[in-house]
Amino acid sequence: MEQLQIRILDPRIGKLWPLPHYASEDAAGMDLRACLEAPLHLLPNTVELISAGFAMHIADPGVTALLLPRSGLGHRGLVLGNLTGVIDADYQGPVKMSLWNRGQEAIIIEPGERVAQMVLVPVIRPKILVVETFAATERGSAGFGSTGQQ
């Protein structure tokens, strides 16, 4: 995938604030900004749906976009309400972020603040094969957490 099509919905994107971009040469995720008219006081255990200021169309069925929290903000309690957002290749609408304050104190989000990141990843869509049994493995059908037992 060489290009990602975006349509600007908030005129501040690309003028006052940069287009979604990678903050460093080796960054995996593009920073997304809170397109707010005024600071948002996000109280503990509350969720707000906010715009990233653009719509997008991936157009490649072999790619999806994942919306993820930014590490530093996540540590302070600001995560995504759906934990990880998934944007399908055929979606052409506005990008919105469900911001959840899971912390103990209010978080103030400023207009234009980088609040999430978007990572483009390959998609594997296998055909389903129904079987009677699986090939044997060392673990087999041992339950959740079984590899941590001595």
Strand content: 35-45%
Indicate the structural class. Answer: mainly beta
What is the helix fraction of residues, given as a range?
under 10%
Strand tally, please? 11
Terminus-to-terminus distance: 45 Å
Average pLDDT level: 93
Across the major sheet, the strand order is: 2-3-11-6-8
Count of helices? 1
Helix and strand string, N-terminal first? EEEEEEHEEEEE
The gyration radius over C-alpha positions equals: 19 Å
Could you say how many structural domains there are in total? 1
Using the alpha-carbon principal axes, give the shape. Answer: globular
CATH superfamily: Deoxyuridine triphosphatase (dUTPase)
The main pleated sheet reads as: 5 strands, antiparallel
Tell me the name of the CATH class. Answer: Mainly Beta
Topology of this structure?
Elements: E1 5-8, E2 21-22, E3 30-33, E4 40-42, E5 47-57, E6 63-69, H1 71-76, E7 78-80, E8 85-87, E9 94-101, E10 107-109, E11 114-122
Antiparallel strand pairs: 1-5, 2-3, 3-11, 4-10, 5-9, 6-8, 6-11, 7-9
Task: Kindly describe this structure.
It is built from one helix and eleven strands. The chain has 150 residues and is mainly beta. The chain has a five-stranded antiparallel sheet.
Summarize the structure.
This protein is mainly β and 150 residues long.
Q: What brief labels describe this structure?
A:
150 residues; mainly beta; Deoxyuridine 5'-Triphosphate Nucleotidohydrolase, Chain A; 5-stranded antiparallel beta sheet; 4-stranded antiparallel beta sheet; 11 strands; 38% strand
